[in-house]
Amino acid sequence: MTEPDTDPETRYDIVVVGGGNAALCAAMTAAEAGARVLILEAAPKAYRGGNSRHTRNFRCMHDGPLSVLVDRYDEAEYFDDLMRVTGGKTDEALARMVIRRSQACLPWMEAHGVRFQPSLSGTLSLARTNAFFMGGGKALVNAYYRTAEALGVDVLYEAPVTHLALDGQRITRVDYTHDGRAHSLRPRAVVVASGGFQADLDWLAEAWGPPARNFLIRGTPYNRGTVLRDLLDQGLSQIGDPTQCHAVAIDGRAPKYDGGIVTRLDCVPFSIVVNKDGQRFHDEGEDVWPKRYAIWGRLIAAQPDQVGYVIIDSKAIELFMPSVFPPVEADTLEALARKMDLPAAQLVETVTAFNAACGDTSAFHPTELDGVRTEGLTPPKTNWARPICEPPFYAYSLRTGVTFTYLGLHVDETARCSTASGPVENLWAAGETMAGSILGQGYLAGYGMTIGTVFGRIAGEEAARHAR
Amino acid sequence: MPDNLYPSPIEEARRQAQICNACRYCEGYCAVFPAMHMQRAFSDGDITQLANLCHNCQNCHDACQYTAPHEFALNLPAVLAEVRQDSWEETAVPRALGQAFHRSGTLIAGATVLIMALLFWLARHLPGEGTGFYAILGHGAMLAIFLPATLLPCLAIALGLRRYWRRVEGGPIRLAHLRAAFGSAARMRNLAGGHGEGCTFETGAGFTHHRRYMHQLVLIGFLLCFAATVTGTILHYIFAIPAPYPVFSLPKLFGVTGGILLCLGCLGMLRAKLAGRAELQARAVRGGEFGFIALLFTVSASGLALYAFGGTAALEGLLALHLGAVLSFFLLTPYSKMAHGFYRLAALVRDAQRSA
Ligand SMILES: Cc1cc2nc3c(=O)[nH]c(=O)nc-3n(C[C@H](O)[C@H](O)[C@H](O)COP(=O)(O)OP(=O)(O)OC[C@H]3O[C@@H](n4cnc5c(N)ncnc54)[C@H](O)[C@@H]3O)c2cc1C
Ligand code: SF4
Ligand code: SF4
Fold first, then answer.
1. CA-closest candidate to residue A199, choices A24, A18, A430, A411
2. What is the pLDDT of residues B259-276, one digit of tens each?
3. Which residue from B21, B165, B290, B293 lies 20 to 30 Å from A333 (Cα-Cα)?
């Protein structure tokens, strides 16, 4: 380590851009290796932690019982699960590395203040594969900030980075604003962990067209992709398709940003979903979680005004996790249609046709693909098809909720970024902003935090080694 | 006096519970969440029960991604504190006393001074009998004052708990329910914060056991003082050994250690309460809570002073102070923070029924 530097521009060895899980893992690791680290977080303190503050678990390989995780979940099974949801669009070497390293992450996370709890009620299917953070992602983020500060990491909030100056194969300057003024730093190394660009609706609209303006953003409004775009504009190697994003159908009344987990609706399988014209447009009984979960975001995005309406009756109301807002309720379908601003006659016709196509429902089973299906209906409903006939009737509006985008920085197994002419000497990336290097499409619950933790630690280690 | 934060705490708690129920991230912190997550809709009784399971550790608040400035504005510790407080006041017998004393430290102090003065007057004007304490206030007179002063509050608490039990739709109580409830209370399991590292009540950031330990000191100190009284009564009636007792006697050993623990615990709780964030507590009753802690401290400190200076000319004054504090403590038990222990136990019993 060199003598303490008094020049404020070079006071820090490493600047970490972003303040979520990946950024914190990198900062703590680098500080433990002896580096002087500064975190530049765009958000104010109350909203620090990006999308990470909305998470609940991470997916963790384990050869035997580990902390709250029961049984075992080995590399082969983990990798198979991943391949299934991504349809094979996966970088196998990086994916396997992340999986293998996830096992050591759990004790590391505990040592850095994270506490785990058994899987939450209603999430039994994840008890073996995903370790849940006690208190959720914000508790994790809080613990990491406490640990990082104890390690001597400095943190600036409301300090969005505007530009990383690339000179040849080096980042020579970090520009950011703070307190209404522009500032610059000249650290030896930089870690970019500033997430995707989903909060920038203009950028989403470039990729998706104007309908994207009606999307809701499930997480932080601060992930606007400023640094990502800045780096791509300077010729950094990119990965992923800008039109690819993880989007699910959420309660249409959710806030524009930051609605988080509570706005999700799990009732589609027990419902019919109509568009604003009162018409069905897709098989509500298709497939199983988690693929089904993610497909409806895109389906809704393709409907007029990017809105859908999920209709259920009193038989179904207890079958899914309660959501944040109570459903709209009415004793007749006509009244329900009026309350939802749907064409009443058309809704009644759609429901009548659906009910008439339902057959024997005695095999109905809410948690399995039960094969209880419609006959002679287009589109069909291939599971859980029971007539909607027992008042009161309930409805929720649905909108597309974007979780994250896939376009990102291309990194190698050491988390290092590159340009067409080779690696950038002192730039590493971790988390959402490079996750496209591993996943081309699709998503496996809990894998985002695993990528961020594994790559955050690698980036921190590499950056610290470089800064030495 | 500040008002409640929420115009209708039960309505507001229902709104927040619905959000938590869709989230569930805090499930591991305490008994509130598992109880909450068994339901989809919450009656007033359900909300009251949840509120009495909460002990305002604030861990859920600091972990919550939906606290203000987020539009969902979650603040479970505060809204549950207000519901809880209302439930104690509304089920108190008689209700008016509950409403008066819970909210006002000044009233608590006023009542205490008045009672102290009364005892001072009695000590002056009633004939003494025997030696030591009894030379000042005869045993018969003490009994005549303290027997009803113990029994009446007990009766009031019992009636209040009955009202509570109806409100939360409690069922018949079995031994197993009691065992579970007392076990949980004795270990202050919920105060351990789920992960066993305590709470963020004082720091707003890191977890500490301070509040849990201080509360434990108060409880143990209180129980020891109670044991001192019981052993004294037994010595008096069964073995015909009247007070004062020597240093190495059960009443004194219990009393002195209990008094010291209680003093320290009260100071610790006071410090915790001062350090804590008012906006996460039931702010309308802060005055009453400080008044109660001060009263409990006066009880224990004057008791210790009595042990130390009982042989001097200060005896009469100290006795009036101490007995006055004890008397007002007893009488105010159903209408002050002291009541929380009984309601909390009832809530734990009810919770044991739920999870059985
Ligand atoms: C509602 C929801 C629930 C989720 N649940 C889970 C889950 O349970 N498990 C899981 O694995 N994944 C989950 N995810 C995905 C998960 O959030 C991400 O994979 C993960 O948090 C990414 O971490 P990160 O550190 O890369 O990004 P983030 O946590 O989003 O952090 C990015 C940070 O960069 C900052 N930033 C952005 N731009 C700038 C700039 N220009 N200058 C400075 N700072 C900037 C942001 O303020 C933020 O602090 C969920 C996502 C959402 C939206
Ligand atoms: S307090 Fe917040 S984080 Fe905790 S369960 Fe409720 S909504 Fe979720
Ligand atoms: S304040 Fe503590 S006890 Fe109360 S609900 Fe939150 S975590 Fe539970």
1. A18
2. 999 999 999 999 999 999
3. B21
Q: Does B29 touch chain A (CB under 8 A)?
A: yes
A60 and A160: one domain? Answer: yes
The residue of chain B with its CA nearest to that of A140 is B63
The reply to whether residue B26 touches residue A136, judged by beta carbons under 8 angstroms, is yes
- The span from the CA of B272 to the CA of B201, in Å, is 8
The CATH number of whichever domain residue A356 belongs to comes to 3.90.700.10
Say whether A135 and B71 touch across the interface (CB within 8 A). Answer: no
Give the strand order in the sheet containing A161-167.
A161-167, A170-178, A181-185
Phi-psi region of A391 (alpha: psi -120 to 50; beta: other; left: phi over 0): beta
Q: Which atom of ligand 2 is nearest to the CA of B29?
A: 4
Residues A274 and A355 in one domain: yes
Of residues B116 and B1, the one with the higher pLDDT is: B116
> Does A381 lie in the same domain as A459?
no
Residue A338 forms part of a structural domain: yes
CA dist., res. B47 & res. B41, Å (int): 10
- pLDDT score of A230: 98
CATH code, A66: 3.50.50.60
Q: Does B59 touch chain A (CB under 8 A)?
A: yes
Last residue of a domain, one of A382, A401, A420: A401
Contact pairs from chain A to chain B, CB under 8 Å: 88
Query: A226: Cβ below 6 Å to ligand 1?
Result: yes
State residue A232's pLDDT score: 97
What is the per-residue pLDDT for B131?
67
B195 and A133 in contact by Cβ < 8 A?
no
> What is the pLDDT at residue A465?
98
Interface residue B23 vs chain A (CB under 8 A): yes
| B37/A255 CB distance under 8 A | no
Within an 8 Å CB–CB cutoff, is residue B62 touching chain A?
A: yes
Q: Which amino acid is at A374?
A: T
Tell me whether residues B66 and A53 touch, CB distance under 8 A: no
Gap between the Cα atoms of B323 and B146, Å rounded: 9
Is the pLDDT score of B136 beyond 80?
no
**pTM summary value:** 0.94
At residue A403, the pLDDT reads 93
Rounded to a whole number, what is the distance in Å from the CA of B217 to chain A's nearest CA? 27
Compute the distance between CA of residue A323 and CA of residue B133 in angstroms, rounded to an integer: 65
How many whole angstroms from B24 Cα to the centroid of ligand 1?
Answer: 20
State in Å: Cα B55 to ligand 3 middle. Answer: 6
Asked if residue A216 belongs to a domain, the reply is no
More confident residue, B327 or B129: B327
pLDDT of residue B203: 85
User: Is A263 close to ligand 1, i.e. is its CB under 6 Å away?
Assistant: no
Any ligand 2 atom below 6 A from CB of B262: no
**CA A182 to CA A174: how far, in whole Å?**
11
Whether the CB-CB separation of B136 and B63 falls below 8 Å is answered with no
Q: In terms of residue numbers, what domain contains A153?
A: 14-199+406-467
Q: So what's the pLDDT on residue A393?
A: 98
Number of domains in chain A: 2
The response to whether residue A408 sits with its C-beta less than 6 Å from ligand 1 reads: no
Residues A184 and A289 in one domain: no
Q: What are the residue ranges in chain A where pLDDT is below 70?
A: 1-7, 288-293
pLDDT digits (tens, 9 = 90+) for B152-161: 999 999 999 9
Domains of chain B: 9-87 (no CATH), 96-355 (1.20.950)
Q: Is residue A273 part of a domain?
A: yes
pLDDT at B194: 81
| CA-based nearest distance B173→chain A, Å | 27
- B288 touches A at CB < 8 Å: no
What share of chain B has pLDDT > 70, as a percent?
98
Give pLDDT, residue A3: 43
ipTM over 0.90: yes
Average pLDDT for residues B189-216, to the nearest whole number? 86
d(CA A294, CA A362): 29
Q: Are B47 and B10 in contact (CB under 8 A)?
A: yes
Last residue of a domain, one of A352, A374, A401: A401
Q: Which residues have C-beta within 8 Å of that of residue A71, sequence separation ≥ 6?
A: A65, A128
Predicted pLDDT at A308? 97
Residue A280 falls within a domain, yes or no?
Answer: yes
